[in-house]
Amino acid sequence: QGIYLAGINERGKDMELKIGNQILELKRTWKLAILAVWIGGLFAHAYRFFNLMPTWDSMYNYKGTGATVTSGRWFLGVMGKLSTEYDLTWVNGVWSLVFISIAVILLIELYELKSDIGIILTSLLVVTFPTVTSTFAFMFTADCYMFSFAAAGAGIFLSFRYKYGFLAGMVCVCLSMGTYQAYLSVAMMTFLLLVIKQLLLEEKSWIEVIQKDLTSGIAIVGGAVLNSVMSSLCNRLMQTELSDYQGINNMGLLSGRGYLEALLKTWEGLLHILGLDLGHFNEPYSAANLVIFGLLFLTTLLIVIKKKVYKRVPELILAGLACVALPICCFVINFVSAATFYHTLMEMGVCFLYLILILYFENEMWQQKMLNAVKWIGLISLLFIAYLNAMNANKTYFNMQLSYEKSYAVCDGILDRIDAIDAAAETRKVAVMGRYAVGDEYLGVMLPEIYGASNDVFLKGTYHYVTLWRNNFGRYFSEATGEEIAKVQSSEMYQQMPVYPRKGCVAVIEDVIVVKMSE
To answer: How far apart are CA 24 and CA 44, in angstroms?
Structure first.
């Protein structure tokens, strides 16, 4: 009994891991995927892994995982305790890459990817995707969110591969949504790509597809229902309620107008993450996406013609419906909550649109000379997108570091001014009035824009200053009450105060240390 490596098997390529009486084959494709995830992941994200870069949100969570049960993320707190509750950038980064590696291996097995280039591209596209970068802007919870990613994929894999796997699949989808609801789109997109592969590439009948994939659909629906039950139960046990953040407390059916607005939001969100809504079509990122999605349309048409799918009308209709559903599933929460606003942190499902091309190019039909040229244009374009996303990640972290340094400098400067006022020693109450912004437009915008990252000061109010002073300076202050702030604002002394950084922008008024950041 026990766990040990059984060594190289008779083919000389794969290793075997023996766990008790069970032997798990460590396939060459898995090792290639893991290698690509870690090399690509470190190239894209090592800057973040080895530096402390607090943001407006993470500065509260040097220890913690943020909102949990009240945000419908009932399993997030549990998962945080299983990995680490601290904002340990390297540890959380390692765990994140582990979960991404598992997710990629599941995709490789589910879609039966064989080619080295297909496996490497899948790994690179996933690990460099903007959602991963945005998640690393909130590193204190990144490992948990990447677990959610892997669990969503595991739900479809188990339900598709095993007779009663839909039961375990339901649990996986439930745990995924219970950690972060946005990864429901990953489960749905994994499922849709499977359907498209079977209909267009494997030429299965619509009856075969429904029979084979029904359990995966059950896992998704059952997992979502089970998550809703668990969320309600946890809130009841803890005597809390769902917050109104992103409309999570009011999900359900929309009106006819609501669905039209959801479609519009979905279209705008898709263009936004692909860099096609800013008029920057001459930018490499936008241009590469235009090429990729032009090829996606062209290759789909070629497959329909070459494999004569048009003669199999039910299969063509079902494949068409699956293709139409792709962007909807990428932004699925738009269609259950009118208050939802999608940002980069929630858009991992969009990455699967790139994976469709990889699935196409795994087919033998592209060996023909003319079609092979189309294939290589597509593969090079996908590799270029992965490279651009990796570079954008590094630019993101560069901007985050500048934001932290600016915020730290502002806090340090104000603290010096407070210490220079004798009357300030008699009170610990602070009121920071207004907001100071110093963003540098010279650095340009990130394409795509990464939610959670900026090069501006992230200090939005007194609560941020007080928190940073406590965590990073070891100085303890409390926030002035609303009543005290009202008295300060009505005083003549406050009205005559100059704004930061001019001399006199810090004063003691009504026994409150007042910092006037803007009019």
So the answer is: 31
